[in-house]
């Protein structure tokens, strides 16, 4: 792994932090721990240094275009390019059961639209044979959507970014106008989060078709992980959840492109609605009650 340059967004805590740690452990030469908050980011770096690792730090707010542009300039000037990009930064809805326009806009801005900004400025720096991993969720599988029109449009062979953008705007418009039909979704919970992660998985496929240069772009569900986002509930530790992202970044064959992986390193058919891989809120709530 000597000579490789890696970036993990949103990595001052949780899964991102564990991924940085794992990449450092695996011998990646330069691993950027990035965070919106400078103090929290620097504190995370210091904690890893105490464990014998030496990540680099850069303050990065993924939905701030000027900030992303500055980071891209830094990467180009300092390293000339990038070998591994793990788009981990993300947020969940404020209320699992209530869908509001303000919250939906925020979730889509961070979980989907920020990836487009990163694509604009940082993807051009990806070296030949580089790897991009988009951290999604089981909320990102197509079975989270019940609307037949959008299932067909998002799973068609000639899927394009405009299709994904239209899906996102259709959802936001329906929330804004009060016309949202919850029957269009697997559950009436975590709806904006589900839409954002479905959009991210679909975008991953679009990006793979366009990128070229033998670069691989895959998405994954890291598992039900014990983090602040899940309020401490979950079946996997953060270190366990970092294994599949590291596998996709370092171990899987370079020919594996445009796929959707599960936390156990198995590939799932993202386009197969009948798999019913969507998460059920009742399961999460039962886990929280048992704590």
Explain what this protein looks like in three dimensions.
With 291 residues, the protein is of the alpha/beta class. The protein has one domain (5-289): Rossmann fold, CATH 3.40.50. The chain has 10 helices and 8 strands. The chain has helices at 14-25, 38-50, 65-79, 101-121, 148-154, 161-177, 191-211, 238-241, 243-250, 281-289, and strands at residues 5-8, 30-35, 56-59, 82-87, 126-135, 216-220, 260-261, 267-268. An 8-stranded mixed beta sheet has the order 3-2-1-4-5-6-7-8, with helices on both faces. α4 packs antiparallel against α6. The longest helix has 21 residues, at 101-121. It is globular and about 50 Å long. Mean pLDDT is 94; it is low at 287-291. InterPro entries: NAD(P)-bd_dom_sf, SDR_fam. GO terms for molecular function: oxidoreductase activity. Keywords: NADP, Oxidoreductase.
């Amino acid at each position: 792994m000597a000579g490789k340059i890696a970036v993990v967004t949103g990595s001052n805590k949780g899964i991102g932090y564990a991924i940085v740690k794992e990449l450092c452990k695996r011998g990646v030469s330069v691993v950027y721990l990035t965070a919106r908050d400078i103090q929290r980011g620097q504190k995370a770096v210091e904690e890893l240094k105490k464990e014998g690792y030496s990540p680099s730090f850069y303050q990065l707010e993924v939905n701030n275009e000027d900030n992303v542009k500055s980071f891209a300039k830094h990467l180009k000037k300092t390293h000339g390019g990038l070998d591994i990009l793990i788009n981990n930064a993300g947020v969940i809805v404020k209320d699992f059961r209530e869908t509001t326009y303000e919250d939906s806009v925020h979730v889509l801005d961070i979980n989907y639209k920020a990836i487009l900004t990163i694509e604009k400025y940082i993807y051009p720096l990806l070296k030949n044979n580089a790897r991009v991993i988009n951290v999604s969720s089981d909320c990102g599988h197509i079975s989270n959507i019940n609307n037949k029109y959008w299932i067909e449009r998002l799973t068609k062979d000639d899927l394009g970014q405009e299709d994904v953008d239209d899906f996102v705007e259709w959802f936001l418009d329906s929330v804004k106008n009060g016309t949202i039909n919850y029957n269009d979704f697997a559950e009436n919970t975590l709806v904006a989060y589900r839409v954002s992660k479905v959009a991210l998985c679909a975008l991953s496929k679009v990006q793979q078709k366009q990128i070229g240069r033998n670069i691989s772009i895959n998405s994954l569900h890291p598992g039900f992980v014990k983090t602040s986002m899940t309020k401490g509930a979950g079946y996997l530790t953060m270190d366990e959840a970092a294994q599949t992202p590291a596998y996709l970044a370092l171990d899987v064959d370079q020919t594996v492109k445009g796929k959707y992986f599960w936390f156990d390193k198995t590939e799932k058919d993202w386009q197969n609605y009948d798999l019913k891989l969507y998460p059920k809120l009742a399961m999460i709530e039962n886990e929280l009650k048992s704590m």
